[in-house]
Every structure is written in C-alpha cells, then in structure tokens.
Amino acid sequence: MVFHDIDVSYSFLYYSSRSSKTFKPKKNIPEGSHQYELLKHAEATLGSGNLRQAVMLPEGEDLNEWIAVNTVDFFNQINMLYGTITEFCTEASCPVMSAGPRYEYHWADGTNIKKPIKCSAPKYIDYLMTWVQDQLDDETLFPSKIGVPFPKNFMSVAKTILKRLFRVYAHIYHQHFDSVMQLQEEAHLNTSFKHFIFFVQVIKVPRGGHYLLSPLYIKIGSKNDPILKYS
C-alpha cells in the first residue's frame, strides 16, 4: 500500500544522554509569551504522570494556542527520538519510507515537491521535519505574539503536521524498535507515543489508513495496562 501525499519543552520527560542529540534544531517557544506560560502549565500537569489530563485544554484558554504549543512540543519530542536512531536509519537499511510491509509513504509538500516522490526513509524524514519546521517558523501560521490571530486554516495545517509526524513514530516502531530497545530508549518512545495518541484523540485528528497503521499495537506498562490500538 503506497500513500502520497524550546529548548524549553516538557520533552524533558523523555530526555536521556543519547536523546540530547536531535535530528533538527529544537523549536523554541519565546520565554515570557502566553504560549510559554501554557507550556509551563502543560509541563506541570505532565509531570504529575497523568497523560490524559495533560492533553486537556486548560479552562479559559484558546484551543488554537493549546494546539500550537503541543504541536511544537511533539516536533521536539520526535526530533529527539529520531535523533537517537539516525545511525540505524540509512539509505541502505531503509531505502523506502515505510511502516511495515503494507505501508509505504511518498513525499510531496505541494510547493517545492508537487508530485509525490519515492525516497528513502532518512530522506523522507528530512523532508518532513524540514517542512514542519518551516510551518512552525511561519508567524502567519503559528503566531507567537499576543493579539495576533491564528489563520482560518490553522487547524487544518496543525492536523496535517500531526498526521505526518505520526509516520515517524510508525517508522521507528516498525523498522527500528530493536535498536531502540538496545539503546534502552523504549520507555521514552512509548511514553511519547502514548502522549501523542491521547492528544490527537482529544483534538480529533481524522483517522484513516493513509496515516494510521492498521493495527499498531503498543504495549505500555504492565500486562494489565490497556493496549493502545491506533487504527
């Protein structure tokens, strides 16, 4: 099946000696901004260990700002997680961007690359993370200043970013989980992924085979823990 297409961050929960290496530069949220305060709120809630509570919109806050803050943080989380396994994700080991034998992804961004192209996983992820970085840096899409409104298409753009970021999780789980375990990073990966799943469920990112593995089972915690099925 083929599919076309801050430093300050509470990613500290997934930090390890290896995860200090990032694939792309981290995206910073300006200190003193309202989004920074939202991030600190999320950090405090997430620090309690309640991931479901951590993804809920704080009372009285703007949904777009909340989504923007979390989208930046998930970019930083995935940036660190993928950074830990880049030596294993190469042109030779991953000649196509895939998540198991049934799901292959071709890259297109609609601007620089309009026609979907088949490429290696590292190339695809480089395209993807660069594209996400460009969206996050665009003040017309992700305004950081108080009083600047979010554009009408913000929700659509944010959901597209999250759908595409999911593919990096999927690739890591299907192609590199053995390496993740060897590096003893599986707890960081599982916690980050569980956090991500809870968040996209709350904001109702559309489901569909084009970005969701069907099924993707991730066991987190004890045998009695619910198994996350994202399909």
From TrEMBL:
It comes from the Eukaryota. Keywords: Metal-binding, Zinc. Zn(2+) binds at C89, C94, H171, H176. The keyword Magnesium does not apply. InterPro entries: MOB_kinase_act_fam, MOB_kinase_act_sf. It holds the Pfam family Mob1_phocein. The keyword Zinc applies. PANTHER family: MPS ONE BINDER KINASE ACTIVATOR-LIKE MOB. This is MOB kinase activator 1A. It comes from Muntiacus reevesi.
